[in-house]
Amino acid sequence: MSSNRISAKKYKWGLDFPVRKTGNQDVLSPPGFNPSVSQSSVETSKENDPSHLIIKKAWDLALAPLKQVPMNLFIMYMAGNSISIFPIMMVGMLLVRPIKALFTLQSTFKMIEGHHAFMQKFVYFLGNIVGMLLALYKCQSMGLLPSHSSDWLAFIDPPVRLEYSGGGMSLI
Amino acid sequence: MMTKGRIMFVLPLQVFFIFLGIITGSNCIYEDQVGKFDWHQSYIGALKFAYGDASGKRGIVATESNVVAALNLKTGNILWRQILEKEPLGKILYLSPSSGSEAVVVSGGSKPLVRAFDTINGALGFEWPLPGELNLDKVIWAISTDKLYAVSVNNGVDFVVNQFSLRSGSQTGKWQHNAPWAHKSKCVISRDLVICYSGKEIHSVRFSQKDAKAFTLELHQQIVNIRSVKSGEKPGVFLDFAENGSEQSHQVVLLPEQGQSIVKCKLMPYSAHWVLSDPNHEAVSVVQLILKNKVLEVVTTDCMSGKKIEESSSAFPFTISASLPQLEDVICGSRNDLSLCRLLVHTEEESIALLHSSGKQLWVREESLASISVVEMMDLPVSDKDAAIEKEFDNKEAGLLGMFGRRLVSQTLQFQQLLQTVFGISDPIQPAGQRTDLVRDDFGLHKMIVVATKAGKLFGLDNLNGEIVWQKMLTNVDTSSMQLFVQRTTRHGPYPAQCSLLLKDKVSNESVLYTFDPITGVGLKKNLGYRVLQAMLLSVMDEESLRPILLLDSEEKVYIEPQTAISLADSFAASTYMYVANTDTGIMNGYTLAQSTGERLVASKVWDVVFNPETQTLVNIVGKSPQERVHSQGRVLGDRSVLYKYVNPNLIAVVTQGTDPLHKYVLNVYLLDAVSGAVIFSISHKRAREPIHLVHTENWVVYTYFSEKWRRTEITAIELYEGKTQSNSGAFSSLLSPVNPLVERQSYILPAMVQSMTPTVTEKGITSRHLLVGLASGAVLELPWMFVDPRRPVTVTPEMREEGVIPYMPELPIPTESIINYNKSLPQINGIHAAPSGLESTSLVLVYGLDLFYTRVAPSKTFDVLKEDFDPFLISMVLVGLGLASYTTKRLASRKALKQAWK
Amino acid sequence: MIRSNHPYFAFVLLSICSTLVLGDRYDFEIDGTIIVRLRHYLSDDGNPEDRGNLTIQSIRTGSVALSQAIIKPHHLTRLKALAKNDQLYRMQATVVTSSNKVVEFLTFMKACALVESGFSDVLTVNLDHSGGVIAISASAPYGICQGAPIPPDEKLRFFNTTIVVRHMDNGPVPDTATYIQKMERERDARERGDQKDNRSFIAKYWMYIVPLLIFVLLSSAGQPEGAPAAAR
Asked: Where is this region: Disordered (chain A) (predicted)?
């Protein structure tokens, strides 16, 4: 805007010669046109520009579940294998959190704009899967998974009798 | 911190498990629950001797069940009851009042005991053993003036009189009377006379005098029977003469006492039962009992003239028994007037009754309930309303319109019933004499207990209070080997339930089948005309939902009852097997019906097992209940693998008592497959002997025996497993690919004498099983099976602990909380019957023996029943209140928010 | 096909394999031999035919000798007919004990199971506490009777019989001795358990301290990476 004003003044004064090289320069830039926009695209590669921050944030987000793994391992160790209310609550949390996270994957990454979040999404997904696997392992070691034959025992029907017998001591 | 806590728990865990076991085992009730779920009835057994005591308030009785008791003559209740020892020691030989107010009882085998019980409180007055040896078969007992006499009759020679002092027990004299006419079965004692008959003559001797002379009286007819006169002033006898033509005559002869004359009453057409004499008038009258067309006539006649005395004769309907009751005593007030007397009678059906001479039945005691041999608990039928609903959903092929019509009809009926109950109009179509409350309840807790007694009497008892609903006497039957079959339960629509009782005819020894409706007792007796060796229910039902009975007779022919089911039986013949064991020969035979044709069932022998009678005798065979259901097919181990149970429905446990030159007694238990005849497992206990009680269900066998070596009762449990894999999970065949099961076994000490043992039964077999053990002390112990588990280890590994096995302890505890009959001791327990109820948690139990005791047990606690203190009203009120409160607060909050928004 | 000139009367000693079910078995005071004559029924009615002889040489050790006849072709056809009709193959065993007592036993199995298994059957001889025979039962453990192919006739010439002699097991007795020992051991352990645990704090609880340390290290290791990011 300021340069436009300056050029208008130039017409009054007519001192600025080198600017008047071409004839079609008379057309004014439309209001709101900012010729420096092209320059800003160059600046994205710089360290502290917002796009870089977003990628960084996305990676942070993607790696968060994996970073939780040691903590989860520790909680799992502390919870022990006995079945009581607190270990169950802990294991439940361990299991439910990644599942919830997976379901809300799209909304989590919505704030990160752009098409390049695929890698992060994948890592995030992997991290949550690892968390889930850990929780399942914990369930298994606590004996909560129906992985043994004994867990299906109640559903076995009694075998059908093929022969029938009866009798006893002589009644005579 | 948490893990540290866990470690600290490990040590007391064992103690904890034991504690847990005891807690789960206890089924004790609170004081206010006494009599709520249980009832107890006391009996005395079949009457042997009885008399009314001097006060006229008590009847003193001695019974076949070795019981001496006093009955309240007003109500028939037991005032006191003394239970003597088991036979032969407790067998009562004689009962008589002493000169004081004591009842003197002679009981015992070769060495009799003389005891006196106070008639008022039953306290033991004195007790002494009879010195010397007596042949009790020959002895007639008598008491006279504080002396006890044992008169041994040597048939055709003499009788030897042993005189004892009643109080001290010392022998005060012994003498003999020559009596070539004496014969034990033809002699009676009346007062202090021995009176015998031979041919036409009666002879009498005063046995209490050393050198008394015999007295002979010749009568004009052949005598066939003699009974002593117990009443009146004079000794005497009732005589039955031989039949003269078609008529039989009877006479009463009273013999002289110190210079009096003989009284010979006039001949009578009916036998006399009692003598009434008036000391003032010297007049003697005779009482006769005559039963004609269910009317009992009490006829009093004058002795000399034979004329009927109308004012003291009566006739009244008599329904207790079909046969003439036996008159035990006539209990009169102060005056000897028969119209004020009461008659104590007992019948062939083992009932004791007190009749007023006017014909009023004062009370009846059904004493045959003290000798129950088979028990079954039957569901009650559904009410008419429920039956209509059931019917509505029963017929599925009726088509849409038909079903709609039926629904309309049933709902109109229901509406009509509703109107009737609302307006208080009672249902007019109610069959008279039938109880209306005998319908199935929601939880199946109300049942009919059907019992058959050794006297041949059948009863239907209401299980809630023990009341007799119906009774039926079967006459002329031998009840030594009774079998009760439930052919149809009440769950089969319009058809009534049906049971059959297999007995034998007393005379011909041929089998008799009594088929009856267990709810009403109405039935039909059928003489089969052959002798049944063994019988079983067919595994399938016919088109009327009836299970036919297969009968194998002594000539190995097979019959079926009802006979119309023969084609049905034939179609299942190839898979039906029967076995019969003979105790005398020790041979067990297995039969198959595979060779049957459509018209005829044929049993052919396919296997036999021989227990050589020289080395062992068959004691007992216990099969599994055919209705048994096993819910869990395996047992979960500590590592969460499964040990599959070996559940062979054809498995039978055979107990034999062997003899051995070294160990004296050997107890053998064989587990046999009743189809293939294969011995699956056999075990032998050295120096162990009877009594043996065995329980066989699911995949285990538990038995108790007496260890001669340690002189204690031991209990052994055997458990059979297929292993970690199931050979064929779909079907079980005894013939194809038989498996050799793994056997676990363990023994324990049971610090009590066992009388009877049975497992609890529940409908689906989900609830854990307990053993109900009747003890000689009169207690019924509920012993969790967990305690006799053969897998109880001495040293507990963590895996075992995970499995929940209690560590091994050689002696089983008998905690008083586990006694299901709390303080109501049950003498002479003969058996325990457990039946499932509609609730899976609850098992109904009837303990029978001398007494009846009924209760419920819940082995895994009543997990399917709300607690008694559960208050649905309070809870619903709280819920409604909370709902209202939340609604109003919501409204208030929204209003407040609106106001705030306007500010 | 079996050659027709085969001498039928020749007995072939087929198997001396015997299994004695060991374990906590009953000991007999006396030893003896038992001779068993085996005969089998080849139809539902009719007389039994000879099958062979079995001698239990010692009831204590369970050593047996068995000689069985070759199955004649016409017997084979009859056996096959039994199998085809799903009938029962019955066998009679006549036992002569050492005291010259004769006892007869009957046993059976499904004929189809026997033929399907190629005549590999198992004969179980059950003895009681005095060494007497109480039952001889036959079974064909490999036959399943569900239409399995019948082996060719060449393989159906002999019985391949296994003999099992089963003694009774000894009944268990309440194990008081071990229990008392255990109680004593426990009491001793309790007395010893009163002594102080002299290990140092670290030696006792290292298994809790090490994970805690690792945890602390891990969380602090993540810090330098996160801290600058948070600062910006």
From this structure: 23-45
All chains having 3 or more CB pairs closer than 8 angstroms to chain C:
A, B
Whether chain C has a CB inside 8 Å of the CB on A56: the answer is yes
Task: Give, as one character, the DSSP assignment of residue C118.
Answer: T
What is the complex's ipTM, to 2 decimals? Answer: 0.79
Per-residue pLDDT of C163-186, as tens digits, reads 988 888 888 999 889 889 988 998
Question: For chain A, what are the domain ranges?
Answer: 50-77+84-145
- Rounded CA separation B282/B330 (Å): 19
What parts of chain B have a pLDDT lower than 70?
A: 1-27, 257-260, 278-282, 333-338, 388, 390-398, 424-435, 737
Nearest to A56 among C211, C222, C229 (CB): C229
- C-beta atoms surrounding B109 within 10 Å: 14
Q: Per residue in B558-592, is it b (16+ CB within 10 Å) or e — as a string?
A: bbbbeeebbebbbeebbbbbbbbbbeeebbbbbbb
Distance CA B394, CA A94 (A): 52
Q: What does B644-669 look like in DSSP terms, one character per residue?
A: EE---TTEEEEEEEEEETTTEEEEEE
**Count of domains forming chain B:** 3
- Encoding tokens for residue C53? 């002889």
What lies within 8 Å, CB to CB, of B434 at 6+ separation is: B520
3-state SS, residue B224: strand
Residue among B610, B669, B808 with most chain C CBs within 10 A, to mutate: B610
Nearest chain B CA: its distance from A134 CA (Å): 20
Q: Which residue of C has its CA nearest to A72?
A: C215
Provide the CB-side half-sphere exposure for B901 (13 A, CA).
6
Mutate: best of B625, B642, B673, B698, partner A, most A CBs <10 A: B642
Specify the residue for token string 């030897």: B160
Distance of CA B468 to the CA centre of its chain: 14
- Are both B763 and B714 inside the same structural domain? no
Q: Examine the domain organization and report whether B619 and B675 are in the same domain.
A: yes
> Is C61 part of a structural domain of the chain?
yes
* pLDDT over 60 at A39, yes or no: no
- DSSP string of B128-141? EEPPS---GGGEEE
Q: What is the DSSP string of B182-211?
A: --GGGEEEETTEEEEEETTEEEEEETTSTT
- Asked if the Cβ–Cβ distance from C211 to A71 is below 8 Å, we say no
Residue C7 resides in a domain: no
- What's the domain range around C162? 34-166
Residues B466/B854, Cβ–Cβ less than 8 Å: yes
CA proximity to B733, closest of C91, C83, C144, A157: C144
**Which residues does B185 contact at the CB level (< 8 Å), separation at least 6?**
none
pTM > 0.90: no
Q: What is the pLDDT of residue B10?
A: 36
Does residue B53 fall inside a structural domain? Answer: yes
The Cα A122–Cα A125 span in angstroms is 5
The answer on B771 and B690 residing in a single domain is: no
B717 and B788, same domain (yes or no) = no
Contact B518, B378 (CB under 8 A): yes
What is the structure's pLDDT at B5? 34
Residues of chain B found within 8 Å of residue A165, distances taken between Cβ atoms = 536, 576-579, 623, 649-650, 674-675, 734
Please give the sequence-ordered ranges of beta strands (E in DSSP) within A39-163, or none if there are none: 160-161
Return the closest-CA partner of residue B656 out of C128, C171, C124.
Answer: C128
Counting as contact any 3 or more CB pairs under 8 A, the partners of B are A, C
Site of tokens 């020679």: B157
B311, part of any domain: no
| Pair (B145, B205) in one structural domain | yes
In a domain, B638, yes or no: yes
Residues from chain B that touch C105, judged by Cβ atoms under 8 A, are 608-610
B792 shares a domain with B704: no
